[in-house]
Automatic annotation (TrEMBL):
It holds the Pfam family RsgA_GTPase. It comes from Geodermatophilus sabuli. GTP binds at residues 135-138, 187-195. It comes from the Bacteria. GO terms for cellular component: cytoplasm. This is Small ribosomal subunit biogenesis GTPase RsgA. It is found in: Cytoplasm. The keyword Cytoplasm applies. Monomer. Associates with 30S ribosomal subunit, binds 16S rRNA.
Length: 340
């Protein structure tokens, strides 16, 4: 592989590159400055005006470079977006052009099947392929049973147990992030994402919880979101901002809950509410034990959430349009002759 393909560059992208520009992969964004990986190594670049007008480049984006100026963001193949809880702001692209999303949860403590399901629905929505990683396997006394249980909820998704302490399973995870492939980790706080990232990197690049506690500087010392090159040739996006994930839309839900979606399609009535309607395939599956009622409830909740989110973005779109029309009218009043 060439240098640039190791960064995830694929030949068909050449057609997307403006003439006279070189491609660079955004590894880091801070205060408007970009750290970009190129065939010639790392460089600091400035986003051009056209980029700033938009929401700006995200980690993982490919940009077109003219010297030290990034003049365009190339089309994204996949995008991991999030909405922040309680905000009305537009969804934010956390990381772009991911191949794999590692949904990370711990193999210890109470069963977290529903939580994994939720992360999977979000992960599928990104367009990248999710893999479930169960960390702290060294603290679980029946890893195969747990992996099996999680696999039943994670349809079509591989479940990989790992321990960052013993190193068991780390190579299996690394194998999913082969040369030129890009992965990101998502998962709740404290499940061991930073520890796993360090195990994959082979060196402690990312501060884990103990470090942060011992230096007394608290959680905010976590590094900025960053794209790291792995020793095996893959790329890993560090996790800040990937802990709490709001559902952006319902795109991933159907994939994550393909079994439920399938059943619902077989109900007698197309608008079946799956409550007490005759011929309800969902109710029948729950009754004879083919469908876990908790999984069904989780599906309904996620759908309701996605619907709320859709309404919110509709409201946002209306507000933007309203502001645009008002500005236009104001301009017309100010310069009546020009507009006519
Ligand atoms: N026994 C065991 N402990 C682990 C393992 N991985 C992580 N830990 C411990 O779990 C705690 C949390 O690990 P982190 O890597 O900081 O977790 P995180 O998911 O990055 O947490 P946030 O940065 O808050 O999102 C630390 O005390 C780690 O030492 C593991 O594989 N086995
Ligand atoms: Zn039904």
């Amino acid at each position: 592989m060439t240098e640039i393909s190791l960064l995830g560059w694929t030949p068909e992208r050449a057609a997307e590159l403006p003439p006279g520009c070189a491609p660079g992969r955004v590894a880091r964004v801070d205060r408007g400055r970009l750290t970009v990986l190129t065939a010639d190594g790392e460089l600091r670049a400035h986003p051009g005006a056209a980029l700033l007008a938009d929401t700006g480049p995200a980690v993982g984006d490919w940009v077109a470079l003219r010297g030290e100026l990034a003049v365009a963001v190339l089309p994204r193949r996949t995008a991991f977006t999030r909405v922040m809880a309680g905000r009305t702001s537009a969804p934010q692209v956390v990381a772009a052009n991911l191949d794999t999303v590692l949904v990370v949860d711990a193999a210890t403590g109470p069963r977290r099947t529903r939580r994994v399901e939720r992360y999977l629905a979000v992960a599928w929505g990104s367009g990248a392929v999710p893999v479930v990683v169960l960390t702290k396997a060294d603290l679980c006394d029946d890893v195969p049973a747990l992996a099996q249980e999680v696999a039943e909820a994670a349809l079509g998704v591989d479940v990989l147990p790992v321990s960052s302490v013993t190193g068991a399973g780390v190579a299996d995870v690394a194998a999913r992030i082969g040369p030129g492939r890009t992965a990101a980790m998502v998962g709740p706080s404290g499940v061991g994402k930073s520890s796993l990232a360090n195990a994959l990197l082979g060196v402690p690049v990312i501060a884990t919880r103990e470090v942060r506690e011992s230096d007394g500087r608290g959680r905010h010392t976590t590094t900025a979101r960053e794209l790291h090159l792995l020793p095996g040739g893959g790329l890993l996006v560090d996790t800040p901002g990937m802990r709490e994930l709001g559902l952006v839309d319902d795109e991933g839900i159907d994939t994550a809950y393909a079994d439920v979606t399938d059943l619902a399609a077989r109900c007698r009535f197309r608008d079946c509410g799956h409550r007490a309607e005759p011929g309800c395939a969902v109710a029948a599956a729950i009754a004879d034990g083919r469908l876990d009622p908790a999984r069904y409830t989780a599906w309904r909740k996620l759908q309701a959430e996605a619907r709320r989110q859709a309404l919110r973005s509709d409201a946002r779109a209306r507000a933007t349009e309203h502001a645009r029309v008002r500005a236009l009218h104001k301009a017309m009043r100010a310069q009546p002759n020009r507009v006519r």
